């Protein structure tokens, strides 16, 4: 695992490196069969769910190489946003909120490690806790959370979850390592809603993750949602942005599919929280998905579609808790016969 403490990664100049193997930032597949598996917040909300994710990854990895992308534990990004605004308003209560967040991750860590010492990971998690405290304390002192500072804070949700999910995979008997996307995912400086710059990002993704397809390489568990600007400052991709991370990685690596594992059976005819008899669609075109999201279906983060569509890689929506179901496939051309009216 990367020995650098998390805070020193903030200064890491990502984009100045030479292009990796493969040269130009193209979309030539490194090897067919690689799939990106992204797990959202509800899929990693509790130790039991994280273990279920590890089970899904184990069975998928038996079929071919995979890169895992994870969101923060369910609710953590919201909690971090709330803690920042409490601190910015000058209320001491930010400390309790911090303690609750630290406690939640610590409990998850203790459950997942199951009696093993895990000293390196323990030390890393403590460093992240210190970072969190420093950031919130800073916000409290200046009574302001700028978008840039907020991004540095919010990134901790995914920095923590990637390490915890990698631990669960190792417990499942798989070789796995947490990977900080700030090493290669370069964005503009629209803090809070940054867009990925494919020019510098693609060769760096290939240089860092291209080896994943080789037998015996550890499965990378990449932080979703998080990137770094050309200046090396932490940025985030907008709420729901882990989907976008998965698509960017899939495009750069020429993946066979970008699978978004979530808590519903696929893209439904309507939001299942609102319309109880909504049912999952088998297939959808990228254009139909965009249209659905214009009408408020927040099942896929909209910026996800472009990198997948441009590279011609299908997006697949699947249920972590019902892995036997096929889910919904989103691609260019969809047979009209499959279309239910949305
Ligand atoms: P994740 O945490 O896995 O990223 P999200 O909460 O971002 O999951 O997206 C999944 C949720 O999107 C579902 O739980 C569902 O309530 C909601 N949703 C809204 N519209 C739709 C739709 N048309 N089809 C499926 N899910 C939808
Ligand atoms: N954790 C981030 C959020 O809650 C990103 C994501 O879940 O996709 O928005
Ligand atoms: Mg989401």
Average pLDDT works out at 90
Strand tally is 11
Amount of beta strand: 5-15%
Gross morphology: globular
Helix content: 40-55%
Could you name the CATH topology? Carbamate kinase
Compute the number of helices: 10
Oligomer: single chain
Q: Please identify the structural class as seen in this structure.
A: alpha/beta
| Strand arrangement, major sheet | 3-5-2-1-8-10-11-9
> How far do the termini sit from each other?
46 Å
CATH class descriptor name: Alpha Beta
At CATH's second level, what is the architecture? 3-Layer(aba) Sandwich
When the domains are counted, the total is: 1
- Topology order in helix (H) and strand (E) letters: HEHEHHHHEEHEEEHEEHHEE
Task: Give a quick precis of the structure.
The chain has 342 residues and is of the alpha/beta class. It is 41% helix and 13% strand. An eight-stranded mixed beta sheet has the order 3-5-2-1-8-10-11-9, with helices on both faces. The chain has a three-stranded mixed beta sheet with strand order 4-6-7.
What does this structure look like?
The model is unreliable at 1-31 (pLDDT under 50). A hairpin with an 8-residue loop joins strand 10 and strand 11 (328-331). This protein has helices at 6-9, 47-61, 76-88, 94-113, 119-142, 147-171, 198-209, 242-253, 286-294, 305-311, and strands at 35-39, 66-70, 176-179, 186-187, 219-223, 226-229, 234-236, 257-262, 283-285, 315-319, 328-331. The protein has 10 helices and 11 strands. The N and C termini lie far apart (46 Å). The radius of gyration is 19 Å and the shape is globular. It has a single domain (6-74, 157-331), classed as 3-Layer(aba) Sandwich (Carbamate kinase), CATH 3.40.1160.10. The strands form 2 sheets. Strands 3-5-2-1-8-10-11-9 form an 8-stranded mixed beta sheet, with helices on both faces. A 3-stranded mixed beta sheet has the order 4-6-7. It is an alpha/beta fold. The longest helix has 25 residues, at 147-171. Bound molecules: adenosine-5'-diphosphate, aspartic acid and magnesium ion. Adenosine-5'-diphosphate (ADP) binds next to loops.
